[in-house]
Amino acid sequence: MSTVLVTGSTGLIGSESVRFFSDKEDNIVGIDNDMRSRFFGPNASTKWNRDRLIEEIPNYHHLDEDIRDEKAMEKIFSDYGSDLKLIIHAAAQPSHDWAAKEPFTDFTVNANGTLMLLEMTRQYCPEAVFIFTSTNKVYGDAPNNLPLVELETRWELDGSHPYAAEGIDESMSIDQCKHSLFGASKVAADVLVQEYGRYFGMKTTTFRGGCLTGPGHSGTELHGFLAYLMKCAITGDQYTVFGYKGKQVRDNIHSYDLVNMLWHFYQNPRSAEVYNAGGSRYSNCSMLEAIEKCEKITGKKMNWSYSEQNRIGDHIWWISDVSKFKNHYPDWHYQYNIDDILKQIYEGIKSRI
Ligand SMILES: NC(=O)c1ccc[n+]([C@@H]2O[C@H](COP(=O)([O-])OP(=O)(O)OC[C@H]3O[C@@H](n4cnc5c(N)ncnc54)[C@H](O)[C@@H]3O)[C@@H](O)[C@H]2O)c1
After folding, report:
1. Dihedral angle at the C-alpha atoms of 192, 27, 347, 34, nearest 10 degrees?
2. Is the pLDDT of residue 5 over 80?
3. Which ligand 1 atom is nearest residue 113's CA?
4. How far is the CA of 92 from the centre of ligand 1 (A)?
């Protein structure tokens, strides 16, 4: 039985992966212990998503385990062995601010947890494709040194810069800049994933996400910005914009479009690859633009305020250049732009409230 193992299977990317691959392979095994609710509180719990997956996907098997638990991981990998054709590793502690509160927990989940899964893959199913969902935060605050110009609603890169046309590509250095502890634990994981490809010849890849989003996100103040923004737009809860005049730009990719990238990679895998993966020039917005879009969709003014203090590790302007991936996998295309994404998030939250 060809089996896909998804870690963080009830989170945004994990659950999208479970759904996407459930009609492509025989068996989908998901690992998630709802640690998101420990990080961000009960409102961020992904249990609702777990229950839906168990109910709706007949070939989904859920395992309520911690990826740091060596005995539990050994059991899972030895049970499935070479049936495991694909590992999608999406379990993580995903927030800058939270990482500073509990550095050991952040590092053991993000770095040690990734090493655990790589090593289990090497021992029990070395032929499997191993996909890691990394982050653009591995570039630390280096993007903030780019020459930016201020426009009415957003920061924009100076038009003469090589990154201006398509966005930031994989050539940007990840070294000698401020990452936050979260960024540092993700760098450790990202480099380990590359190393298992280069050193051991395994089919590993790291997708460095911009903002990954979609209706499956359990948005919370510390993570899942569009989902949380829309939640506040609907409920009237107060939303705080941190720094940069609210003109910071993020690119946003729908979880479906990202997982479709993973699918293209899986069908024709490479070794030790690194891809920037975000909404690119196709799908992006500043905070101010996102607020305006939410207000249009809900038909209500948002209750938001501004704090001068920016979040440590926040990018002022980030647009992913996805040309490298598109060159390797020319059949992949986006399906959802920023307006489609926001409408879907709106409908998703409405149906859950
Ligand atoms: N969402 C974004 O904007 C974004 C951007 C860039 C990169 N990423 C990366 O993509 C990946 C997926 O992100 P997401 O948005 O789906 O996050 P998410 O928080 O929605 O999902 C992660 C899941 O992992 C689970 N988990 C955490 N620690 C665990 C552990 N020790 N054992 C088992 N399960 C555990 C959580 O309960 C959660 O359900 C992460 O690696 C994240 O860093 C996300």
Report:
1. -50
2. yes
3. 31
4. 4
Strands 27-31 and 60-63: parallel
pLDDT in tens, 214-269: 988 877 777 788 999 999 999 999 999 999 999 999 999 999 999 999 999 999 99
Determine the straight-line distance between the first and last CA of the chain, rounded to whole angstroms.
38
Cβ atoms < 10 Å from Cβ of 153: 17
pLDDT digits (tens, 9 = 90+) for 112-126: 999 999 999 999 999
Ligand 1 atom closest to 15 (CA): 16
Say yes or no: CB of residue 133 within 6 Å of ligand 1: yes
Cα(91) to centroid(ligand 1), Å: 4
CB-ligand 1 contact for 68 (6 Å cutoff): yes
Helix/strand/coil for 84: strand
Of the residues 32, 63, 223, 225, which should be mutated to test ligand 1's pocket, given the most ligand atoms within 8 Å of the CB?
32
CA–CA gap between residue 111 and residue 187 (Å, rounded): 8
SS3 for 129? strand
Helix, strand or coil, per DSSP, at residue 113: helix
Q: What φ, ψ does residue 189 adopt, rounded to 5°?
A: -65, -45
Q: What is the pTM of this model?
A: 0.97
